[in-house]
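Hi there. Long-time user, first ticket. I'm pasting a complex I've been working with (about 672 residues overall). I'd like to know whether the download I got is complete or cut off, because the file seemed smaller than I expected. Thanks.
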Amino acid sequence: MAEIDFEGVTKVFGAGPPAVDGLTLHVNEGEFMVLVGPSGCGKTTALRMLAGLEEISSGTLRIGGVVVNNTLPKDRDVAMVFQNYALYPNMSVEKNIGFALKIRGDSKSEIKRKVDEAAAILHLEDYLERRPKALSGGQRQRVAMGRAIVRSPRAFLMDEPLSNLDAKLRVEMRLEIARIQRLLGVATVYVTHDQVEAMTMGDRVAVMRDGKLQQVDTPQDLYDRPANEFVAGFMGSPPMNLIRCRVRSGEDRVEVVFGDQVVELPWHYTSSHTLPPSGVDVVVGVRPEDVLVADASSTNTIKARVERREALGSEILVHLSHLDVTVGTEVATRDDARVSTLVAKMGPRSSVSVGDVLSVQISPEHAHFFDAVTGATLREN
Amino acid sequence: MTTLATPPDTAPLDDTPAVPDRAPRRKVGRWILFAVMLAIAAVMLYPFWVMIFTSLKSEQQFLSGGGFSWLSWRDLTSVIPIGQEILSSTIVCSASILVILVVGLPAGFAFSKLRFRASTAVFLIMVSAMMVPLQAILMPEFVNVTRLHLTGGYLGAILVYAALGTPFSVFLFTTYFRGVPDELIEAGIVDGLGYFGALWRLVVPIAIPAIATVTVLQFIQIWDDLLVGLLFIQNTNERPITVGLAVLAAGRTTSIPELMAGSLISAVPAMVVYLIFQRYLVKGLTMGIDR
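Hi, the file is complete. Here it is re-exported in full:
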């Protein structure tokens, strides 16, 4: 077991922009760290540098306190699980799992003992003689895991290992991987573009974009306290509503203006956030579950029309348009794609229909504010 | 008296047009295809039939047009050392193919999986060597091999055959290995292999169709070649079967039945190799089509 340290690690391919730009990240011993971000954000490149499959352009990479920038992959003592499993097609499951041990020169009895142990953990005892092509996707995934755990490496590296599985199997394997990682207590770096995987599996989650680290935090803190507009929009399904609007603050009140509608916010936001002066635009973020339907007579609401309704069984996602009432107003929001719709999460028995005009409230304690230019959070601390 | 309107006899239950039965047409098509294939097979097998038929006659019977005799087969071993010549051909073929594989496999792996400066240019130069006809480079090669004093025995011919066959093998292996997922090799490297280890232990076992294809095609080409053997193997007791048959044909009096018997013996190994590797050959030659 070992800690992993990225210190200003950068990777540049050719003359293009850096694929990974000054990544600084610490992974504790036994920690499950998830690297998450959209395609092309540099998360896989970071993982491949850690595995030794890509050279590091600059910066320092340490495993267990030892600089490994120029260490060969085989000498790093890490195990990797690939997206398409990369099982050796000419070998049986047993030989696949024991291959690294054979290369290492372990005795036959030792290999057999360790393979049997791994097979028991992964429930693969009945498939040891089979070739990979005779296995289902889930079984192949487990063999790939077995190949990693049998080595008792200092770190596990996983590159989107669940992305080739169907939705049901993915949920099962998510739990399985998390269970095995806890059981073995080995530092794990797990790459995914799926924020649900990131939220459910990681002890901490590192969000990347365009090669840069955006935020590292526990899943809940990432959800509750996003460092910027990108993280706020990326984490959560459906994503946070991000609405460009204008701040209007008085002596004892702070309001945000959505088109021609005004919502008053609790005064404490002025102390917990560095809100801009009156008349300046901000981006307000509201989670779908914090958009509440109010009585028509309620005050401090936004009028919105139901544009679309998605019944998911346990909840209904309601897409609301609040633009209808903003025509010709002073707020310069019409050209901003971020204000097109507002998504609300409602109970399964909600009787809203397309075309209904609702009065909705923003849960007063759960609004997020971001700088309209930089996208950074305006929250202090 | 009232009359009832007669209902139509075969009123369709729905408006769907009846699907024409294509089975008879398909059957006729199959027969035509079978006839064409049979004709092609007859054309291909005709030379063999002539060889077999002619070899089973004596010289006299061949000239007179009738009869049956094992004489040409019995006399063949006394006319040319056919056993030794087949052994020579086998040695030259096997050694040349071994060199071609030993060079072609790592080269194909490097061109398909490793990133190095000017790899595409080097690959294109190497592959373009396939376009150069043997006759065009034969004299320079002969001069080179002679300067190395290798024109006496097998070695010179082996080197020339290897040089001629390697570009094709590099091309074929490169194409084949491009279809092998990078992750497979990377998994091996993370597991503790080097590049040669990954090639030998992971890639070669799944490259059997490509190896078989190179082996069969090169075997047929080298086994049937006359020119290189004639020029580069000058020791008469090391000459291959094709040179032996050429000597037989170039004699003052050529016995056609004996020549046919020798040719048949010469053709057998190539056919055996082809039949053994046939199932891989199709896969090796069609690789890349389904990707």
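A couple of notes from our side: Chain B has two domains: 27-56, 78-286. The two ends of chain B are 77 Å apart (CA to CA).
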